[in-house]
Design a protein that fits this description.
Layout: E1 6-10, E2 13-21, E3 26-36, E4 39-49, E5 54-57, E6 64-67, H1 70-73, H2 76-94, H3 98-102, H4 106-126, E7 138-142, E8 145-154, E9 157-168, E10 171-181, E11 186-189, E12 196-199, H5 208-217, H6 221-227, H7 231-235, H8 239-260
Antiparallel strand pairs: 1-2, 2-3, 3-4, 4-5, 5-6, 7-8, 8-9, 9-10, 10-11, 11-12
Length: 263
Amino acid sequence: MKLGNTKIEAGNVTFALQYRALMPDQGVSLQVASCVGGEEKELLRFDCFDQRPHYHYDPEDKNLHYDMDKTTAGNAVGWTLTQLRTRLPEMLKKAGFEDIANKLDCPLVLSKLDQVEEAARYMALKQRRTVTHNRGDMVIEAGNVRFGLEFRELTGDRGMAIHVLSDVAGNEIELLAFDCFEGGPHYHYGPRNQDVRIYWDTTVVPDTLEWTLNQFKSGKLPSMIERAGYPTIAAALDRELVATKLAKEIEPKAMAMRAAHAK
């Protein structure tokens, strides 16, 4: 993979950083590189992603891949910096670069890692991909959540959207968003925080609006809200009220709105 544009030299190794916003994951990638055979080569890479943080030994050739355990490792950036400060020579040797490991200027590396940490934490905080949608043309209250319905007309795509909203610290926040588009249908967990974005396979889910409503009707809404990062809202959900609102208002109005915009 191409090295990140933020580079910090540390003797015979270079630390390169970049923020990567993928689907459905995102986070800081921290690379350790050096000159091998006259060319710059990626020796180690730590992908400090939200959902599946992991790291690679010799990503270009051997590509030994290990997952970070989010339960035991904690913050992925913090865990990565700990390994670089305490295990870098051993990790370089495992990647197959013993000569580079033996020539490390360890005091210089440790001093430069303070700069690396500052840059990595800044990226993790400031370069996060989020998205802000409209709340919907029609908003239906259902206890501690509300459902915003709209038919979205975008450049190159169109379709029904359902926004699941609630109040957090006195502000309305979008917890979930379902963009049931004709061309690139997808949905979001926590659009304003982690923005985990998942695209439907329309071969197995031909009607994404129907699929969305079925998740609500089958009781998946609390677990989806919890995954989005709002467990207290999920716990306080009035399931019976939501079920009533789905049957009497949300489903019939969403279906009617879609039908009114059918080509």
